[in-house]
Specification:
The protein has 208 residues and is mainly β. The chain has helices at 2-5, 193-201, and strands spanning 22-23, 28-29, 34-35, 40-41, 46-47, 52-53, 58-59, 64-65, 70-71, 76-77, 82-83, 87-89, 94-95, 100-101, 118-120, 125-126, 131-132, 137-138, 143-144, 149-150, 158-161, 166-171, 177-178. The chain has a ten-stranded mixed sheet with strand order 1-4-7-10-13-16-19-21-22-23.
Length: 208
């Protein structure tokens, strides 16, 4: 997919190094899975052959990474997260417990289908129990609130919440939510105007 190609440079570094990753005795990392140095794979997690997980990641209990999935460097997967084929997570993405990715908009059992890719760009946060439909892009440093159902692309630095998810604000790279009239982040000083312009041209704001 063309949109997924945008993150290719994120994974240009070698995923396997001389420094080994940690695998809990009750975790399953199949031969042929690429797991980067310094990554920790905890109990009952399963990484399939053909999956790619970068360096210094944390893969929590009961996580599953399917063949064809790509996980960048310094990514956190909290317990119970499944990352499916054609799902790409950029560097430093945080995925909260039991968040759900999908790769099929019209699922049926035993029917021919083609997976739809999902791209979560660098530094974004996916809150606990959030659900993302397939074929979406979550922009860099965006913040998907817990329990949100994301049905369309999320612009960079946008805070989205609700069912379906709508833009509720702007989030800085440092994680602070900025006020509606703030020109820059009170914590780190990052200018936020360009990101608000992207939000106005992308996902419609909530009217609530």
């Amino acid at each position: 997919m063309k949109r997924l190609a945008r993150v290719a440079p994120v994974f240009s570094r070698a995923l396997m190094g001389r420094r080994r990753f940690y695998r809990h005795p009750r975790a399953l990392v199949e031969p042929g899975a690429l797991v980067g140095p310094g990554t920790r794979v905890w109990a009952f997690a399963h990484i399939m052959k053909g999956a790619r997980v970068g360096r210094d990641c944390n893969v929590g209990d009961h996580c599953f990474v399917e063949a064809g999935a790509v996980v960048g460097d310094e990514v956190t997967l909290k317990n119970g997260v499944s990352v499916w084929d054609h799902v790409v997570l950029g560097d430093r993405v945080f995925v909260g417990p039991n968040a759900v990715f999908t790769n099929d908009r019209t699922p049926r059992s035993r029917v021919p289908w083609s997976p739809e890719g999902t791209l979560v760009e660098v530094g974004a946060t996916i809150g606990a129990n959030a659900t993302l439909l397939g074929g979406l892009v979550v922009g860099s440093y965006a913040f998907v609130a817990a329990g949100a159902v994301v049905t369309r692309d999320v612009p960079p630095h946008a805070l989205v919440a609700g069912v379906p998810a709508r833009i509720r604000g702007t989030v800085c790279r440092c994680g602070r939510t900025a006020g509606a009239r703030s020109r820059c982040c009170a914590g780190c000083g990052l200018a936020l105007g360009p990101f608000r312009a992207l939000q106005r041209s992308g996902v419609r704001k909530s009217t609530r």
